[in-house]
Amino acid sequence: MAPPAAMFNEPAIDSVPLKSTFDVKTFPVQNGKTNTLAELADKWEHGFTFAPIRESQVSRAMTRRYFKDLDTYAESDIVIVGAGSCGLSTAYMLGKSRPDLKIAIIEASVSPGGGAWLGGQLFSAMVMRKPAEAFLTDLGVPFEDEGDFVVVKHAALFTSTLLSKVLSFPNIKLFNATAVEDLITRPTANGGVRIAGVVTNWTLVTMHHDDQSCMDPNTINAPLVISTTGHDGPFGAFSVKRLVSMQQIEKLGGMRGLDMNTAEDAIVKGTREVVPGLIVGGMELSEVDGANRMGPTFGAMALSGVKAAEEALKVFEE
Ligand code: 48N
């Protein structure tokens, strides 16, 4: 029986050597050559055409890499839950200081970045109070200096720069559109638990456990998890709420009212290992400690990420 593709008079890629040369008359073969925009300019009517492709090549280019990543990061050194400003800042600091560590970032949304694509009330500018401008300088994000604080002209400039730097680290893999829906635990000698990884599922699956039959999750083992899932909300404060339901902490302090001066110091100074194997940072921490919220100023998110990375390296070197 001929391969199905042959029935449509198309050579299934399996029957055509991968490095085949298509009919040069219809498909100018690129042979791995890369092009420049200058070569393309104004050639649209003079022989322009894309290099040939078969749909299965696109499928394999994506799936081979994704499933290799799932295999590689099934055992990670550190898992960061939540790719908001704190989680990404943590990843940036760890990516810079420990290129030897395998770091998986699990982000429920298709679009990472959390609440840091805009400033407050959907305005564009992002405010960071000094000394957080040190993080912007390290990252290479320009800002306007207003004395005790600085302003990045668009929050998306900060978040896109941070995201691009994090994604460029070869030892960091972002699994977005993927939710952490539980924590892996191991018993400790004193009757408590140590967190030893995360339980994951496609976010769309996580959102439909109530209306579909059992859709079991996947797992990532890691000796250290850093949770930065934001303050309470449909997905927020995930790990600390789970610690309460697992009876590892008695109750949540609950985020308090807005007080910039109190909130930002408390979040940065409070970033820590809440239970063995689990560091909490960013606004998720406000739910544990009952810290105030700070509203539309983001310095604490960046510096909580810096501190979370420091705490991680202390734990990791123990
Ligand atoms: O931006 P967030 O929500 O969280 P942080 O802590 O990185 O930054 C908080 C900051 O944006 C503020 O809230 C500002 C400073 N305002 C404060 C205030 O007073 O209002 O990012 C959390 C990320 C999001 O992208 C979520 O999608 C993701 O975590 N997430 C998860 N990802 C995977 N699995 C989960 N269970 C999960 N829960 C949340």
From TrEMBL:
Protein modification: During the catalytic reaction, a sulfide is transferred from Cys-214 to a reaction intermediate, generating a dehydroalanine residue.
GO terms for MF: cysteine-dependent adenosine diphosphate thiazole synthase activity; ferrous iron binding
Principal location: cytoplasm
Modified residues (2,3-didehydroalanine (Cys)): 214
EC number: 2.4.2.60
InterPro entries on file: FAD/NAD-bd_sf, Sti35, Thi4_fam
Highest taxon, organism lineage: Eukaryota
GO BP terms in the entry: thiamine biosynthetic process; thiazole biosynthetic process
Cofactor(s) the record lists: Fe cation
Root EC class: transferase
Coiled-coil segments: none
Cofactor-binding details, from the entry: Binds 1 Fe cation per subunit.
Record's keyword terms, sorted: Cytoplasm, Iron, Metal-binding, NAD, Nucleus, Thiamine biosynthesis, Transferase
GO cellular component terms given for this protein: cytosol; nucleus
Pfam families, alphabetized: Thi4
Gene3D superfamilies in UniProt: 6.10.250.2840, FAD/NAD(P)-binding domain
KW Iron (keyword) present: yes
Binding site for substrate: 86, 107-108, 115, 180, 216, 231, 283, 293-295
The keyword Secreted appears for this protein: no
Compartment(s) where it occurs, according to its Swiss-Prot or TrEMBL record: Cytoplasm; Nucleus
Reactions catalysed, as given in the entry: [ADP-thiazole synthase]-L-cysteine + glycine + NAD(+) = [ADP-thiazole synthase]-dehydroalanine + ADP-5-ethyl-4-methylthiazole-2-carboxylate + nicotinamide + 3 H2O + 2 H(+)
HAMAP family listed in its UniProt record: THI4
Subunit structure: Homooctamer.
Function: Involved in biosynthesis of the thiamine precursor thiazole. Catalyzes the conversion of NAD and glycine to adenosine diphosphate 5-(2-hydroxyethyl)-4-methylthiazole-2-carboxylic acid (ADT), an adenylated thiazole intermediate. The reaction includes an iron-dependent sulfide transfer from a conserved cysteine residue of the protein to a thiazole intermediate. The enzyme can only undergo a single turnover, which suggests it is a suicide enzyme. May have additional roles in adaptation to various stress conditions and in DNA damage tolerance.
Assigned protein family: Belongs to the THI4 family.
Protein name, entry field: Thiamine thiazole synthase
Native species: Mollisia scopiformis (Conifer needle endophyte fungus)
